[in-house]
Write a structure and sequence with these properties.
Length: 163
């Protein structure tokens, strides 16, 4: 009886339900499940696009993990996709939401080094399947002009339909 109870506790602890597929995350599928509900393609209010995946740190830390993907800015001199990386933690009373942050260094094979980075922080709300973010874009400037090296704004990302 004690073994059954311990087994059930371990199973409950290992499982975090993926927001979109309803597939529980476990030790066996933690690299392919969607623990935070944000895996996929997204577009923001300015037309920028990103493709992201989230992955649990480990089965025993089933509410935190990493975000990886690529980002294509529709504004400025950005061209093609740039790598992005970040972190997430599940939030809310039923762990349905996801607090997240990710950064993009604008340096790729198409444009080279754009001498700028952007960091986004925000929340994914499952109720409307939307990511709400604020961002800071930092660009290289001359030392005497450092007061103007940062821009701050916000973006709302909505999921792009799968083909």
């Amino acid at each position: 009886m004690i073994k059954v109870v311990i087994f059930l506790i371990v199973i409950v602890k290992l499982n975090v339900f993926a927001a979109q597929e309803g597939i529980p995350c476990s030790a066996e599928n933690r690299d392919t499940c969607d623990p935070c509900g944000i895996n996929g393609k997204w577009k923001n209010d300015l037309g920028s696009e990103m493709n992201i995946t989230c992955k649990l740190d480990s089965p025993d830390r089933n509410t935190t993990g990493e975000i990886k993907g690529k980002y294509n800015s529709a504004v400025g001199n950005a061209e093609d996709f740039y790598p992005l990386s970040g972190r997430f933690t599940m939030a809310g009373p039923d762990l349905q939401n996801c607090v997240l942050g990710f950064s993009v260094a604008y340096n790729n094979a198409v444009r080279g080094n754009s001498n700028s980075t952007a960091s986004f922080t925000g929340v994914y709300f499952k109720v409307d399947d939307t990511i709400y973010t604020h961002w800071i874009l930092a660009s290289n400037t001359e030392y005497k002009d450092m007061w103007r090296n940062s821009n701050i704004g916000k973006n709302v990302f909505t999921r792009m339909a799968s083909l």
